[in-house]
Amino acid sequence: MGKGKLFVLSGPSGVGKGTVLDKLLSDFKDVQYSVSATTRKPRPGEKDGVDYFFLSREKFFKMVENNEFIEWAEVHNNYYGTPKIFVDKCLAEGKDVILEIDIQGARQVKKLYPDAIFIFLVPPSLNELKRRLNHRGSEDEKNMKIRLNNAEDELKEVKNYDYKVVNDRLDDAVEKLKSIIIAEKCKIREEDCQ
Ligand SMILES: Nc1ncnc2c1ncn2[C@@H]1O[C@H](COP(=O)(O)OP(=O)(O)OP(=O)(O)O)[C@@H](O)[C@H]1O
Ligand SMILES: Nc1nc2c(ncn2[C@@H]2O[C@H](COP(=O)(O)O)[C@@H](O)[C@H]2O)c(=O)[nH]1
């Protein structure tokens, strides 16, 4: 059994990472979603252990201290991290894993897992990004500003990724993401060449 592949999905807040992944994972069971930990408060409808592991700052930094994250970062004034145990267990069992993390986290992952595949989701325009964030209604005015300000810098990071997918029509973006995963899984591995 070969090692599983690690996929990393990033993109500015509100571009649709969660929406695209929900749709992809609902009918494509080959990839495991890594649930992140965060110090952000849950939004209405979000479930602990499903959307995130919602932690106090104290608990989050205990995990940092114990080296329990692959990567962690402060994003839009909250802390987020990828628990190591789930990812490493899946990869060792030959299962593929996808992380939905920000650009700072992706840089850390690149150092630790140089073979990971990095995918960047971009909005059709900044105006549409703003409209989506507004429409989601999850952020107050202050947080909207923070997220939109960060978006401009985040978009410059696309150069460090392997693939860019524009999330214009949702179904198209899901199909493209699925195609990338399938193509990467068909790549010739070292073990195929012996
Ligand atoms: N292709 C699309 N066309 C129109 N609306 C979309 C599309 N994709 C996502 N949306 C909408 O945009 C909003 C933001 O989507 P979502 O929450 O998935 O973004 P996100 O990138 O995961 O954000 P965050 O990084 O803040 O978690 C949601 O209201 C969602 O329904
Ligand atoms: N570095 C990490 N970034 C993460 C992780 N999980 C999520 N995120 C990023 O946070 C923002 C905001 O998310 P929200 O749920 O508060 O809207 C999002 O854009 C993700 O990219 C993580 O484990 N590490």
From TrEMBL:
Domain Guanylate kinase-like intervals: 4-182
Protein's name according to its UniProt entry: Guanylate kinase
Source superkingdom: Bacteria
Species in which this protein is naturally found: Halothermothrix orenii (strain H 168 / OCM 544 / DSM 9562)
Species lineage: Bacteria, Bacillati, Bacillota, Clostridia, Halanaerobiales
Reactions listed under catalytic activity: GMP + ATP = GDP + ADP
Name of the top EC class for this enzyme: transferase
GO molecular function, one term: ATP binding
Similarity comment: family membership: Belongs to the guanylate kinase family.
Entry-linked InterPro entries: GK/Ca_channel_bsu, Guanylate_kin-like_dom, Guanylate_kinase, Guanylate_kinase_CS, P-loop_NTPase
Cellular component terms per the entry's GO annotation: cytosol
UniProt KW keywords: ATP-binding, Cytoplasm, Kinase, Nucleotide-binding, Transferase
Sequence positions that bind ATP: G11, P12, S13, G14, V15, G16, K17, G18
Subcellular location: Cytoplasm
Stated role: Essential for recycling GMP and indirectly, cGMP.
EC number: 2.7.4.8
Pfam family, one: Guanylate_kin
SMART domains: GuKc
